[in-house]
């Protein structure tokens, strides 16, 4: 399950997870998410999902865990026992806590939950994140018409995920897309999408041999990178999650060159 290994098997599993999440999302009652759009909070970079009310259905949660367990077990049969323990451990209170902690990217909580319950370290957070996404995607779909701009450095305006993917539209406009919640918003083509730097000396393009429709925008100020994919020629546009998965090799190229999907604030002095 380590992301450093991009095997065909890994990509196939990820693709099946994305498809499963799409099914889950369509099964949600659209009224179970009630976003509260606060302009001042959005301008300060607070993600919309942080202020959304979500009615959370424990039976659905447990059903999804069963679905994801079934899928993972096809690839790693030994996982079945762990997924059964996860199901047994999740009462309503714990399930709610998982959602809250997954929202907050609280790796420490999930790591200690795994340790305390003798589970593989990656399982609790992976499961929580997987079942959270349909709610994030539903939130994004509901507020998309109100999302035009992001705040540099704050990640996705809907879910807070660090920026890493953009698509070109129209005359070459750069539109950022979030692979986690599917929200999209505009950014200046020449600017670094992490720190907003638009100095052409320090915002550069890494071109990839043999890939005319894909490039990596890099920034020497914050060391952030953004994959910029020209999907204008595509007949069928992939979802941001699929496009992100299909271009995962670009993340490796960027990371090998020392760039990150979350830029750094430059230390002065
Ligand atoms: Zn997002
Ligand atoms: Zn930057």
TrEMBL record:
It comes from the Bacteria. It holds the Pfam family FdhE_C. GO terms for molecular function: ferric iron binding. Transmembrane segments: none annotated. GO terms for biological process: protein maturation. Residues 190-263 form the FdhE C-terminal domain. InterPro entries: FdhE-like_sf (IPR024064), FdhE_C (IPR056796), Formate_DH_accessory (IPR006452). The keyword Transcription regulation does not apply. Keywords: Cytoplasm. One of its GO terms (cellular component) is cytosol. The keyword Transferase does not apply. PANTHER family: PROTEIN FDHE. This is FdhE C-terminal domain-containing protein. It comes from Mesobacillus selenatarsenatis (strain DSM 18680 / JCM 14380 / FERM P-15431 / SF-1).
